[in-house]
Amino acid sequence: MLDERLEVENLHLWRGERHVLRGVRFALGRAGCLEVTGPNGSGKTSLLRTLCGLIYPEEGTVLWKGENVRRDLPAFHAALAYLGHEPPLKADLSARENLRYWVGIRRRVAANALDAALERVGASGWCDRLVRTLSAGQRRRVALAGLALLVVPLWILDEPTTNLDAEGQQLVGSLIAEQLARGGLVIAAVHQGLPAAVRDVRRLELPP
Amino acid sequence: MTWTWFHRLASPPYVYALAARLTPWFAWPAALLIVAGLWGGLVLAPPDYQQGDGFRIIYVHAPSAWMSLMVYTTMAVAAAVGLIWRIKVAHAVAASCAPIGASFTFAALVTGALWGEPMWGTYWEWDPRLTSELILLFLYLGYMGLRAGIEDTQRADRASALLAVVGVVNVPIIHYSVTWWNSLHQAPSVMRLDKPAIAPAMLLPLLSMLLGFTLYFVALLLVRLRGEVLARERSASWIREAVSA
Amino acid sequence: MRQFLDMGGYAAFVWPAYLVTLTVVVLNIVWARRALERSRAAARRRLDARGEQP
Amino acid sequence: MSTPGAPAAATLASAATADADAGAGATPVAGAIDAARLALLRDLKLAFRKRGQLVQPLAFFALVTMLFPLAVSPELSRLREMAPGVIWVAALLASLLALEFLFRDDAYDGTLEQYALSGQSLTWLMFAKTAAHWLLTGLPLALMAPLAALSLGAPLASLTGIVGSVAVGSVALSLIGSIGAALTLGMKRSGALLSLLTLPLSLPVLIYGARATQLAISGGPLLAPLELLGALAVLGVTLAPLAAAAAVRISLE
Lengths: 208, 245, 54, 253
Hints:
The structure holds four protein chains of four kinds. By secondary structure, chain A is α/β, with parallel strands linked by helices. Chain A contains six helices and nine strands, in the order E-E-E-H-E-E-H-E-H-H-H-E-H-E-E. In chain A, the strands form two sheets. Chain A has a five-stranded parallel β-sheet with strand order 6-7-8-3-9, with helices on both faces. Chain A has a four-stranded antiparallel β-sheet with strand order 2-1-4-5, with helices on one face. In chain A, helix 4 (about 110-120) packs across helix 5. The chains are: A alpha/beta, B mainly alpha, C mainly alpha, D mainly alpha.
């Protein structure tokens, strides 16, 4: 089987009149972690969404295992987990129900694994409350539990530490470290840098 | 190898220049044919034995109705090409079509009503063709509304292209259903407009008008296309060249 | 001439129909040219805006 | 690793490695049908959590059909003649009213993005969402239609025909509507545009539906229009989710 490897070649993207991505290129192999930095409006989110295949770039390609992701998007998506700015949670479902549907659509998930994931992010105490009653930090934790449950080789995270307290940031760090230890790939857009637990981070700085 | 023409047609600078060069080649024959058609239709053609001179409305109604359908088809084909192969020029063609088609659909409705009054004794008859034409006008308006509602040109292109394709699948169904519905309610005495046989002196001006309008549409399309292509282009050097020219 | 203008009694229908259609024909030419002019102006503006920030 | 809940973390990690050991391709992946079933269940559960929204289109339908006797005349013989038109126009508008909610929340909270990135067929997921929409508006409308029909002077014998025609026709309406709703995603004031896009395409449904209802009331053979309605629904089932999925992807670009 081909190695899990993400390569990006000469990515150009325009949003309206703005040339947002100007020839972005990088390659990331197993256990590789890439930190995408840059000021607001430098196109971090656009880059991540382009990597996911949501946005079609004007020029350039994204290769997964050496093959253009456009050729088999479902297969690429099955190997990928994306967390955007906002945790993708339904306000009128409880945290547990949210995970059951969100993760369940992609893979079968056992009840005890769900419990374990919720406990891991410190959600055991409130995981049966409706998400609308949870704080922003708590929602972020639920999303992290979902991320861990998906068990996919490639994580693409947009500001994973937003709204989290110190302990929550550590949690993000250890989740990423574990993903890397498993040989997974992580690409994260961050403002203040990834938590200390993550070592050997490569950095991609987007110009303003 | 055989695809080079296709690739060149997808290249905005080439299309921009080509459109500018081709426009007069369509515009002048169109003007000639339309003037000839008007002369033939208004002066040379004999009055109809049933409708008298009233039938002369056909020389503007039929070309308008033809335009409304042909433009929609062109738009849908261009939209499908743009959607499948992600060709900007194709989207530019589709975007250029909508206002032209909508205005001629409107003209077809008005001239149809003006023809209806002397023939049916009423301006509006729920005749399947007029009803379909009205629906077509709404399809055009929806298409233009959707374009106007989405700010990002690329997304507007793709969303409206999808709508055009959905519409073109629906147009025959709508037309069939309207005809079916009309057959239930039609009073048998209403006069039909179709003519089984038409004298050459009447037919020739009509053909001249139809061809003239078609060429006129191509010329209009070429002018509009240049604007739409320009709006979608990002290469500064080329835009400078196009604008200064 | 009067006979021609009278259109066998159908003048009230024939002439408005021709008028409407020809108006649409002429308006389309005007609109198309104006749309092209607008795009060219917008392109010029874009070039100027881009010139400021190299 | 000094995070709270260390034992649980160990279980999770071991579960994860077990999956990872089995190879990335061999993780227990849910099938397209399973995914669609879950998406359907999620929408139904959410709808029952927000019952207020559920009742709105039904109340609207009842209200519109009530307005006609007041506006025209209370004479049942005249109302009976109008009943098919009234019922169908009201059903069309009511289902249009509910369409605005079809994707709005999902687009807002990122659910659509996750659907598009799930690796599952977005077409099936759109089909599931449309099915949920029909179960929550089309079916209740079909069940309410007899009440409206009775109040408009339709005979008892006609009611099964009316329920059937509204039930089948509303399938097609939901499917057509899902395309319009997906196309207008991300617009601020999409209500008027949504109706401009959807109503012309719904015309055949209106024509056959009203005809079937009319035949049901007059006691005629309503199989022909009902079959045509069914054909529209089948065509919609095969094509509309595809178009809606494409429209959703465009809206996410």
